[in-house]
Structures are given as structure tokens and as C-alpha cells.
Amino acid sequence: MLLLIPLLPFLGFVINASLGRRLPKAVSGWLACGAMLGAFAVSVTAVLQANAAPEHFVQQTLFRWIASDDLQVPLAFRVDPLSSLMILVITGIGSLIHIYSTAYMHEESDSEYARYFSYLNLFASFMLVLVLGSTFPVMFVGWEGVGLCSYLLIGFWFRKKSAADAGKKAFVVNRIGDFGFILGMLVLFVNFGSLDFQRVAWAVNALPPETSMGVITVATLLLFLGATGKSAQIPLYVWLPDAMEGPTPVSALIHAATMVTAGVYMIGRNAVLFEHAPITLAVVAGIGVATALMAGTIGLVQNDIKRVLAYSTVSQLGYMFLAMGVGAYAAGIFHLYTHAFFKALLFLGSGAVIHALAGEQDLRNMGGLKKALPITYWTFLIGAIAIAGVFPFAGFFSKDEILWKTFSGHHTVLWAIGMVTAFLTATYMFRLVFLAFHGERRHDAPAAHDASASSAHAPATGHRPSDAGAHGHHDHGHGHGSHLHDAPPAMAFALIVLAIGSIVAGFVGVPHALGGHNRIEAFLEPSFEAHAQAPANPDFQVSQGRTVTPPAPEPAPAAAAESHAAEGEESAELMLMAVSLGVALAGIGLAAYFWLRNRASAARVARSAAPVYALLLNKYYVDEIYDAVLVRPIQSISTLLLWKGMDAALIDGTVNGVGRLVRTSSDGLRRLQTGSVRVYAASLFLGVVLILGWYLFR
Amino acid sequence: MPTLNHFLILSGMLFAIGTAGVFLRRNLITILLSIEIMLNAVNITFVAVGRYRGTVDGQIITFFVMTVAAAEAAVGLALVIALFRHRETLSPDAFTSLKW
Amino acid sequence: MEQFAFYVLAGVTILASLGVVSSRVPMHSVMLLIVSFGALAGLYVMLDAPFTAVTQIIVYAGAIMVLFLFVVMLLNQHREDEPEVMPASLLRRNLRAGVLLSVLLAIEVAWGLSQVGLRSFGTDPGEISAVSSVAQIGLALFTTHSFAFEVTSVLILVSMVGAVVIARREH
Hints:
The complex is a heterotrimer.
Chain A: H1 4-19, H2 25-52, E1 58-68, E2 71-79, H3 81-104, H4 110-132, H5 136-154, H6 161-192, H7 197-205, H8 215-230, H9 239-242, H10 248-257, H11 262-269, H12 271-275, H13 278-299, H14 305-325, H15 329-356, H16 374-388, H17 394-408, H18 412-437, H19 489-504, H20 519-524, E3 547-548, H21 567-597, H22 599-608, H23 610-617, H24 622-669, H25 677-696
Antiparallel strand pairs in A: 1-2, 1-3
Chain B: H1 4-24, H2 28-53, H3 57-87
Helix pairs in contact in B: 1-2, 2-3
Chain C: H1 2-22, H2 26-46, H3 50-75, H4 88-115, H5 125-132, H6 134-142, H7 146-167
Helix pairs in contact in C: 1-2, 2-3
């Protein structure tokens, strides 16, 4: 039964990929949505079933996939608290995005439409395999698969060079991370003899935490490298902003709600391992918070609406990694869950704006949309408030939980940086809101051919933010101002549901300090611990589809347990909450001053700090640095050494040389054919003399 | 009583004469005749050694050699006629077109 | 007595062969070769191989040489053409090469022969009759070597057809 969860979207992919071009749009679109909704229904059932089980999990082994002496990897799916949350998010928010897409992609041709939905379904299928897998290899299958789908979907409009380049960039950068992931897997297998999550956790649990670069630290660092690739952290985040070339629903689903969270999920799944490697945790937290800050500063000055949201995603992912790094796994996953709601909402809202403006994406050309697009505006505003972390919206609870856990874990510097980033988040988010929706409609962006002066370019992938209408939205006659229409029903439905989610989603994690029970942390806790006894060996239960519910073991001591707040701690927590709320409101206020009241002063500040402004606008020139330091040397080595030197000269030379040798030698040998019989007879004579001599004198 | 050696020396001389004829003559028919001389030289050797060893195999081989020589002479002479019709000459040096 | 007969027959053979090789008139070459074959037949008789001797006369002298005669008369070339003159250097080179190879061959053959000790023929009458009996030849030919025999008949057929086809006058 668990198989159905990834299988339904996969079937949707198969049908749309094979028959799609002949099906009308309505059929292929609703087929894809139906597959997702079906998967959602099965997921809900599975989650309820798992919850009812004594140890809160349901595992199903489908068949013995790899059986090679020591390496035994069954194809098994496991629904426990962590993966329950993930599958609900993936299928639930995924379904909403599919529904949204039926309207957003409507101008595409039938075959393109079907292709889009086939890729989207395939992505969902792989993502579900990723989170449901009970072993590293199965997770890796999903990991690679979502990378593939990301490439396919980013480069969906592949005829546009920048889109194709962005897809390539995403895949290549991800691959670098995957390399680390594979190495990490191998280290774990060599040292612990298994690739099953539960077994490895149990084996590691028996060891003390490592204080130096031991085996676990190395393995977890390598796994984290994979996470930085997939989840866009330093140093492998560079693909995510470029990924905005893809259709907006893709950005919402893959680059906000699900794929990029795979790295966070992976750490959560292996919480026991990471707990035993404090060095890695420090690295994780450090990189997380640094990425959060860096991305926040870049997002502050970007002019493309989707770029701002992309950097916002990178920044929020940094928060999640910060949480994982300080040991607050449940808090990180909680933020993953709330972020999925409001980030998807923000992306879909921006998609509605772009849709209404017939392809315009530059903030400098927007404004005055508040009255024209009411549904879009109000849902977007809700999303912005949520991400800024204002009570009682979802973002407040999750972000606050992370900051509290950081502070109470005595990581004060990290906490401070986190606070600064929260301030920046509120500021850039509301800058976006005010510039896009308030005031009068402007056309401030420079024209397309003049764009090089002020917009951000990466040399390898040229994205022109003011390249209006070039991303596949044909002009359907919508000009400025009076012809704007708000989101069509399918899109509006998704926006409204997500807005409701952004408001109430946080309530599952109301902390004790405010009188709640922090249900989500309690719910997720079993996933972050190891069994006290060796787990029931699922590797050899080959019977098809038999559900495994193991006997209830003795309760294991909680690993990353929530500390029951003493009175003093509770008041500290409340104080911190007030501080973060104040920071958020201050950010909103600053944004209001600069971009609601006094737009000119924003420009003045930018001019007076021009070098800093240029640095931020050009994303700290990271892409340029990578290009110069890594890409070009590799390219020149490949060209000069490998291509010209080895392939052309050596290998081709040898092969052609053999041909040339044959030609030259036959050219010489043919002269034996003189046509004169007497010469032939003479050569016969010579041969006879020689052979006779050989035999006689031997 | 002539010994085997006598016959072998005779055969060797005949073969040499035949070879010389093949190389030195510039008339196709004479070349063919020289080849016949060579074949006869070989025949002598076979019969002599067969007599020496007391078996009849030598003569059997000779029988086949003669047959093949006949076939070869027939075809060879047919070729000579065809070539003569072409070029009106019997010199082997006139027919050198099968070259590189 | 036998020795004398041998030398006479051998001498005739050799002299006739030399004549074949050196004569400028094709008709003379053919005639001299017939003489040589006749002497060879005599040598076969000396070797207690009467069947072979008779076969030699019938097949070689009687058929093959007649064929040669026909062709010579058909082509009607009275005298061999004068040889073209090769440049002196080339002539010298060819001569030297030919002489060298011939000398080498002669040395090899002589050496080979010298390794063979003096071997006499057996004089046992039983042996002689075994070798000379036509019945024995027939037996061997049609039992042990029957396959070669059949193949040879096919060979003759093929050469007949070939000769006819090759020598045909184009219309």
C-alpha cells in the first residue's frame, strides 16, 4: 500500500509522457492533479495507520533489491513521524501547485502542457521515494531523480538559452554534492556494514560522540556536502537563483517547498549520526547561518521578483540548517513545514502577478496592483507576514523555536546573526510587497538592451530580468493598468488554501511557554532517536508487501529531548519572543519608510553606498569567482590537454596512423606487381632457393 | 647398375634445364615446353624413388602428374591462342597490363 | 650393359632438352621434346615401370605434344621474334642476379644430393614384380587413391571446358 504513494504520480508521468501530446489539456492536467490527490489520500491513510501502531511506524519491504554478500539493500518504504510529515507536505502542497499549474501553464500547446505535467508528476514520485526510503540507496534514487526532474523543469523552455544553461548549472552543481553523498554512504557502509537507516543509527548509538575527525564525522560531513548541493547552501547554492528560469509553479514546488528541503530531511533522518559528530554539527550551523545572512543581504537589493524569493529561500534554508546544527532537529523540520506553506504561497502569488502583467518580472516596472489584484494581494500579504515572523502567523512559531533553541544552547553569536537575518527577512520581504503592489505603476527599469549597466549578470548564464515576455508567456493582449485580471479560479484556490495554511500551520508547534504543548516536537521525537535494541531485521523479509510493525521495545532514552522549561527558562523564552517580534516589526517599518513613504531616499542611500550596493546586486560576485577559479581552468585543461592532446593527437593519431601505415605500406608493396611474368618467375625462383636452403641447412 | 643417385642427378639437371628455359626464353610456347620438361624431371624422381622403396606409389603420383600436366597444357595453350589473337606476338613482355 | 643403356638414354634426354630450350624455331623445340620424352620412356622401362613408360608415350608424346604441334602450326610463327634490347645496365643486373641464384640453387642441390648416401635398387624379383605389375597399379589407383582419381576426372572436364571457352573466337 505504501507503494501507491510514489506509484500514483509515477503512473501519471507515464501516461502523460506517452500519450500526453494527443490528450486535450484538461485531461492531462486533471490526470496529473488526480494522481497527486490520490497520493495525498493514501498518504493520509498511511499516516493514520502509522500513528496507530505501537512504535509509530509502518514499514513495507517490496523486494530484495541489492543482494551482494555483505551489501543487502531491500527496496523498503517506511512511514514514521518524520516521513509522515514530509509525505503530507509533498502530496498536499504538491496537489495545490498542480491545480495552480493547470491555469498558469494554459497558454502552452497540448504537448508542452502534457510534458510539463509529466515532469511534475515524475518529480513528485521521486521526492516521495526520497522521503519514504528506509535505506540510503533508496533515498539516493529519489535524490538523483529529483535532481533530474529539477533539470528538466528548470530548462522546460529549453529553446531559451538562459533556461537551458540554468538547468545545466543546477544539475552539475547538484552532482558535485551528490559525489559527497555517495562517498558518505560508502564510508558508513564500510564502517557499519549496513545502509539501513535504523541499523546504522543503532550501531552508531553504541559509540560515544566523536571529538575529532573520526569516521562518523567524515561520513556526516560528506553527507552534508550533498545537502549543501541539494539544499542550496554555501558553497553550492549558486544554482538556485538561476533556477528561476523555470516556470513559477516549478519554483514554488521544487525550489521552495520540497526538493531543496531534501538536505534538511536527510540530516533529520540521520539525527543520531549527526548527534555523534559535534564537529559536523558546528559546521552545519555555521554554514547555515552564514548562508542565511548572505542570502538575506543579496535579496535586499534584487530587482527581479522571483530572484528576491529565491534568495529568501536560500536564507530560510539556512535557518533550517542552523536548527539542525544546534541539535534542534524538530525545530528545523517544523520550519521546513511552515516554510513550505508560505514560500509556496509567495511564489504562486508572484506567479499570479507575472501572469497578470503578461510576463513582467522586474519590480521597477510594477506597482499599484493592490486594487487590481485583490486576491493575489491579500494572500501575498499573508505570506509576507508569515515569513517575517509576526505572531500568530506560522513563521513566527517555527523561526522563534529555532532562535530560542540556538540561544538556549549557548550559541549566542549564531543567535545574533540569526536575529539580524530575521530583520533583513522582514525588510526585503516588505520591500517586495510595497514595490510590487503599492503606489503607482512605474516603468523604471532600463530597457532590455541597456540592462547590463544595472542588473545582475552571471557571465555563464545571462538572465535578463527585464526581458519581459521572453519566458513563454505570450502576450494575450494585456497591457498596463486597466486590463489586468486577478488570478483565475484554479490559481486563486491554491493561493487561498496556502494562505489559510500560512496562518494556522504554526499552531501545531505552540511552545509550552505560551501555554501550548508543542505537539509537533513530541510527534517528531521518535524519528530522531535510535532503538535501544537492534532493530528487527527488515532486510530479509522479502514477502511482498508485508507490513512490518515490530514489537514494542523498551523505551529508549530520548536523544535530542526537549528540555522541560523551568520557570526561569520560560521567562527567558518569552523575552526572546518579544525581541524577535520587535525585530520583525522593525524590519517591516524600515521597509515601509523606504519603499512606501519615501522612495527617493532609497535611491539616495543606494547611491551613497554605491560600492556596497554593487557588491550586493552582483551577489558578491560569487558566480564570477567560481567561473574564474573553477570553470575556466577545467575548461582549458579539457580543451588543451584532454581534447587536443589526448583525444585528437594520441587516440585519433593512433587510429588514423594505423590507417596511414596500411596505406603507405601497401603503396610500397604494390610495386611488386610489375605485370611481367618473368619477374614473377624470378621471384618464385628466389623463393625456392631460400626455402630449399632453409630446409637443407637446418 | 645405375643407382638411385644417378637418376636423382639426371632429374636435377633436367629440372635446371627446364627452369633456365622458363626464364630465358621469350616465346610463350617455348616457356610452356620448358615447364613440361620440369614436370618430367619430377616424374623421373618419383618413379626412381618408388622403385627404390619397392612401392607402386611413385608411379601413381606420376600418373596424376601427367594428367594435371595435360590439363595445364590445354588451358595454357588456349590462353596463348587468345593472347596471340590480341597482340599478334608471343613474347611474354608484351603482356604487362596486370600491374599496379 | 644397363649402365651403358642408362647413359645413352640419359644423354639423349639431356641433349634433347637443351635443344628444346635453345632452339629459335618453335617447331624444332616441339620435335626435340618428343625425342626427349621417348628417351624418358626408355628410362622408365629401365626402372621396371612399363605402365608408366607406355602412359608417357601415349599421353605426353602422343597427346600433349600433338596439341603443342597444332598450336604451333596454327599460330604459324616461323621464327621467334628478335628480342628487344634492354639497356646494358639492366641486362647486366639481371644477368648477375640470375647467375647468382642459379649458382646458389646448384650448390644447394649438390649439397642435398651429397647428403644422400649411395643407394642401390633392390633386385628381389618379388619386389620388381610388385612395382611393375599393372594389376598392382590399378588396384592402388582404384582403392587407396580413388578419390584423387575421381577428382582428376573432374579436373580434366574443367580444363576442357576452359580451353574451349578461352580460345573461342569472339563474334
